[in-house]
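WARN no homologs supplied; continuing
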Amino acid sequence: VDALAVDPAVWDNGELTGTGVGIDIVEVHRGTTVAEVQSVQTRADEGEVIVGGSFTLLLEHPPGVVDETLPLGYETTAADMCAAIRALSNVNDVACARVGPDTEGGYRWDVTFVADGGDIPPLRVASLEGFRARWTGGDGQGVVRVYESRAAGALLGGTFRLALGGDAATD
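OK structure emitted
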């Protein structure tokens, strides 16, 4: 947006003065909303290898409504992760992608909450079965961790038009 040419007589010690003087900001195009992404990751200490195990995830959303997935194997596909989370009574729709395995046999699933909108409480690990690998990292989470990769919200963006005293800026 080009800057408006403002008559210096309008300014008085950095304040806008005069009769009928004002700055209008008109939203022309709204920014888009971004969906929340939470990541579920299996991991092990260096030298350890994940060769088996399963886990379940828990989601409390909205507050007071708690649901848990069926057990998910350590190598579960992105499609199976999505199906398990979609089956929760408190989720509308998700999209999932899987990355891995890494050198310790760990995977990461990125879960995008497509239709739920707003800030989604974090998925939590409800149970672990059969993991023989260890994680001794100092983050307080075990071999399966969940973290927010991208918070939900509105992108800063879109377009706007400025006007001063009826004179509008040009694009």
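The longest strand covers residues 23-30.
OK
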